[in-house]
Amino acid sequence: MKKITIKNNEKGLVFKNNVLIKVIEQGVHWFFRGERIDICNVYNQFTEVEQGIFENEIIKNQLEIIEVADDELALVFEKSNFKQVFVPGVYAFWKNQHAFTFQKVSLASYEIENVSKAILEKSQMNLYVRNYRIESFEKGLLFVDGAFVKMLEPGNYFWWKNAQIVTVAKGDTRVQTLEILGQEILTKDKVQLRINFAVQYQLTDFIKAFVDTKDYEKQLYVLVQMALRTLVGGLSFDELMDQKNQIAEMVFNEISEKTIRLGATIIETGLKDVILPGEIREIMNQVLIAEKKAQANSIMRREETASTRSLLNTAKLMEENQMLYKLKEMEYIEKIADKINTISVSGSNNIVSELKQIFTK
């Protein structure tokens, strides 16, 4: 025989030939050889895995048995605090001894009911929960098994991970820019240009953009591209240069109604660059140089004419007024004298009279 002591927080399971024959409480007990005693803490989960033990009448009424089906989870709380998750299986606790409570949840639907977000955000739930966040500048569209279900406003969303395929398409509610870069387009007179164009737009109907339209941004790109090619291709090079400031407005008018079908509203369009071929650039530079030269020649001729007219007027006044003539003569003498640094004098005693004759002739 052998002696076993059972503490006040324990119970003993007595097996004979691997069959449970009794449950013993606190105290000292003697057993015959051939009997096996398993000691359990009554405050912990019952973990015996003997075949059919949960159906044994000796212990069945002393246990609280939790059965979790294949499409269920059980949330385990200890003193109202979330502790762990039970996956499909059978679990047991000693009655009236444990501080655990349980909440079963169904995984048959992707939607989560009666579970707080505080619990769903726990790390233990990551394996069982899908999480999607919609930012304040976004709107979301929920698709289940490929079918559109509903619009999602900004917020944090949780769904069960199950056999259903749950996806979320998110769209930006802010103003966005689409750039059409390096478009090579032939004008009506066969001049090949490269054009950079920009479009500012905003999504206004998310169902049209994500449900009714496949890849709305690509569709918008093609729409702008075709409008630009049609308008530029209908103009000659000279017409394009004359109307390039109006091209953006023409494209805006062309695509505004069409983009509504894509769920977007055009806010502004702009022609960023018109890049000319090398030969055309050289010709344009020559034209510009010729224009500037012509302007310079015109200005020079205008100034020469004004100067000649001024001289003629001055001559007429001097012819009519001898005093004015003398003043002008003295002015020129003063200008000549300013340019003379030194004067060497040689000759007869009449040198002063000769100088006077030179300056007053």
Short description:
With 361 residues, the chain is α+β, with helices and mostly antiparallel strands.
Name the overall outline: elongated
How large is the radius of gyration?
51 Å
Average per-residue pLDDT, rounded, comes to 84
Strand order of the largest sheet: 3-2-5
User: Topology as H/E string?
Assistant: EEEEEEHEEEEEHEEEEEEEHHHEHHH
First and last CA, distance: 162 Å
Give helix % range. Answer: 25-40%
Major sheet: 3 strands, antiparallel
Structural class: alpha+beta
- The number of E-state strands comes to 19
Which stretches of 5+ consecutive residues score pLDDT under 50?
none
DSSP strand (E) fraction?
A: 35-45%
Q: How many alpha or pi helices?
A: 8
Per-chain topology:
Layout: E1 2-6, E2 10-16, E3 19-24, E4 27-31, E5 35-41, E6 45-46, H1 57-60, E7 63-68, E8 72-78, E9 81-86, E10 89-94, E11 100-106, H2 117-120, E12 129-134, E13 138-144, E14 147-152, E15 155-160, E16 166-172, E17 176-186, E18 192-203, H3 206-212, H4 216-233, H5 237-260, E19 264-275, H6 278-320, H7 322-338, H8 351-360
Antiparallel strand pairs: 1-4, 2-3, 2-5, 6-10, 7-10, 8-9, 8-11, 12-15, 13-14, 13-16, 17-18, 18-19
Helix pairs in contact: 4-5, 6-7
